[in-house]
Amino acid sequence: MSAITISGDFGLAKPVDRSTSSPPVAQVAAEPAKEKKMEKTASVPAEPGTPFAETLANLGRAILPPLLGMVVLIGIWYIATMKGGSIPGPLQTWDAATTLFADPFYRNGPNDQGIGWNILSSLQRVGIGFGFAAVVGIPLGFILGRSAFLSAMINPIISLLRPVSPLAWLPIGLLVFKRADPAATYTIFICSIWPMIMNTAQGVQRVPQDYLNVARVLALSEWKVVTKILLPAVLPYILTGIRLSIGTAWLVIVAAEMLTGGVGIGFWVWDEWNNLKVEHIIIAIFVIGIVGLILEQSLIMLAKKLTKESS
């Protein structure tokens, strides 16, 4: 007897033969597996770019905009000087630069030296004055940040002296030291110390009071409070003050050397002006800017490294 049922009760038009219409159990069980496999294949994400391609793209995004900016600047310079005049164009300046940097460390006497020696002399003065400013300014900033009384006493003096032009201190340096080199170093010291004091003191004042309360409960000495609690928290402020100070110091040394003479990039610029070599002055402007940029970027990289290590 065949397995035929009448579907009158369910409203079907014809009988259903279950022996022929039902698929095999193995086939029914296999169909969902096929669907899952297809769904899994469709959901596989696209492969990401290779690390080399990503690195190349990041490098392009970092280098291309500044490069385009320099091209625009040189283009404007070329258009402005293409009809001649007293200011040399890019090609004339480039020819002078190739000749100048062919032997940057020549010496034909105390006042006739290559641009390399002049840059090193300026960096030496900046380093000495900046170093003295760091030795004095950073500890003084810690003291002012820790003592409200001393801060209230010293802040008016800082507010009075900080706006004074650094070159106004140069005659005082010449009067005291009787020599050009110490006077220029003294000027660098004066202009570099204010950002370090102010940023360090501000960083100390912004340390959470909970940290100091814990140190008081643990009866830590002042030295341990400074080295274990304050210094890691204030380090970003100190580095910001250092970065501002080094930029100001490099800015001031050029003007100070123009007034004091001797060997230095500022004196070299003034000497080239007396010789009416305007292309050399333009070269010096680019050199001063490049050296200042290298100093600033080096301090920024150092700040990132130190703050990452302290965190």
Quick one: biggest sheet?
2 strands, antiparallel
User: Which architecture of the domain at 117-310 per CATH?
Assistant: Orthogonal Bundle
Q: Helix fraction?
A: over 70%
What is the CATH C-level name of the domain at 117-310?
A: Mainly Alpha
Q: Report the span from N to C terminus.
A: 85 Å
The secondary structure category is mainly alpha
Describe the fold and architecture.
The chain is mainly alpha-helical and 311 residues long. It has a domain of 194 residues: MetI-like fold, CATH 1.10.3720. The chain contains 12 helices and 2 strands; from the N terminus they run ββαααααααααααα. It has a two-stranded antiparallel sheet. The chain starts with a strand and ends with a helix. The relative contact order is 0.09.
Describe the secondary structure blueprint for this structure.
Elements: E1 4-5, E2 16-17, H1 18-21, H2 25-42, H3 51-81, H4 90-100, H5 115-146, H6 148-161, H7 170-177, H8 180-205, H9 209-217, H10 222-260, H11 265-274, H12 278-310
Name a few traits of the molecule:
single chain; 311 residues; mainly alpha; MetI-like fold; two-stranded antiparallel ribbon; 12 helices; 2 strands; 1% strand; disordered N terminus
Task: Please sum up the structure shown.
This protein is mainly α. The protein has twelve helices and two strands. It has a domain at 117-310: MetI-like fold (Orthogonal Bundle).
